[in-house]
Design a protein that fits this description.
Blueprint lengths: L1 H20 L2 H9 L2 H34 L4 H5 L13 H9 L2 H32 L5 H13 L6 H11 L4 H8 L12 H9 L5 H13 L3 H9 L4 H12 L1 H16 L3 H6 L22 H4 L6 H35 L6
């Protein structure tokens, strides 16, 4: 056996020496002009072309929006202008920020998103922990309903939600009292109360996803940790907040980020809970979804020029998404950790 290995080693060494002694042209020909190398090159070229094509399809709409945000109305009339403006300007950004109340909308949206995200994270974690760790009659049914909420299109509930909050706010003592003291106007319409109600009850859209992620994480936590805490005299809530929550920090951060981002870009609730003319009132609450209109200074330029009006809306979208993009650069590691630890356990 040893002699066979020795012969093979000597043969390899001899081949290597012969190859190194061969002329450079022969070595290059042997190394690159062969079927294996050509197949490898063709495969790499195919992957490169495929990746470039997919990247182009995905990134082109964003490139178009960014390029259009620096164009003037005359650029959209000029057929020779495609992506690069002949007279680049930041007027779209300037007028959206100054005339559409960008900073006011930023502050209001930040406060609402922060509050709702915190409430949803706490409520969803409690619900998920109960579904993951406690055996009770109907556990499977409740979890099935949670999954069902993830599959129901939100648009299918638009009319029902609008009527519920409008009528609920005018047909009960709480709603009448709030209306009397001026906190709400027409039921719960034109107020933030419905969003907080949905957050506190765990019934908001996307809450099903948050509950699912947290439940899967909690199911992956060993039961022995809780059992040892119960033996030491700890009750359920103390065990949850002192043992389970510290372990779930990455997952909780992930859920908070998802909830915050959803609330930040929300135009579903604002479109059904606030009347169409509400945003034009003086002193009305401004949110990110309300800054997408055409500023007065650019209104004349957009007349009979739909492409320019669309570009202005795209610029507003960039300003809305920019804070989230910047925040993502700092929290992406928590999102990755949370998804990795979500457990996806049966």
């Amino acid at each position: 056996m040893d002699s066979t290995v020795k012969i093979k080693r000597e043969s390899k060494n001899k081949i290597r020496v012969d190859f190194e002694r061969a002329p450079l042209s022969e070595r290059l020909k042997s190394k690159f002009l062969n079927t294996f190398f050509l197949k490898k090159v063709v495969f790499l070229i195919f992957k490169l072309v495929l990746l470039l094509g997919v990247s182009y399809v995905i990134l082109f709409p964003y490139i178009t929006k960014i390029a259009g945000s620096f164009m003037t109305a005359s650029d959209f009339k000029d057929v020779t202008v495609i992506l690069i403006s002949k007279n680049p300007t930041i007027d779209q950004y300037r007028y959206i920020i100054t005339e559409n109340g960008y900073f006011s909308a930023f502050l209001n949206t930040f406060l609402v998103s922060l509050t709702v995200a915190l409430i949803q994270t706490v409520v969803c974690s409690l619900i998920a922990y109960g579904l993951a760790k406690f055996k009770f009659k109907g556990n499977t049914i409740v979890f099935g309903l949670v999954i069902f909420t993830m599959m129901v299109p939100q648009e299918s509930l638009r009319f029902a939600m609008e009527m519920f909050f409008k009528l609920f706010g005018t047909s009960n003592i709480v709603g009448k009292l709030l209306s009397a003291i001026g906190i709400i106007e027409t039921g719960f319409v034109n107020s933030l109360i419905p969003q907080y109600m949905l957050a506190f009850t765990g019934l908001g859209f996307k809450n099903g996803l948050y509950i699912f992620l947290l439940r899967q994480f909690f199911k992956g936590v060993p039961d022995e940790l809780e059992e040892s805490a119960y033996v030491d005299g700890s009750n359920t809530f103390r065990t949850f907040f002192t043992i389970i929550i510290p372990l779930a920090v990455p997952m909780l951060i992930t859920v908070f980020i998802f909830s915050f981002a959803w609330q930040w870009t929300d135009d579903f609730y604002t479109s059904i809970l606030f009347e169409p003319g509400y945003w034009d009132r003086e002193g009305s609450l401004q949110f990110m979804s309300s800054i997408t209109g055409v500023p007065d200074s650019l209104a004349m330029a957009t007349k009979n020029l739909e492409a320019y009006a669309s570009a202005i809306t795209g610029t507003a979208t960039i300003l809305i998404a920019l804070p989230l993009i910047i925040a993502y650069l700092f929290v992406q590691k928590y999102i990755v950790q949370g998804i990795e630890r979500s457990g996806i356990v049966g």
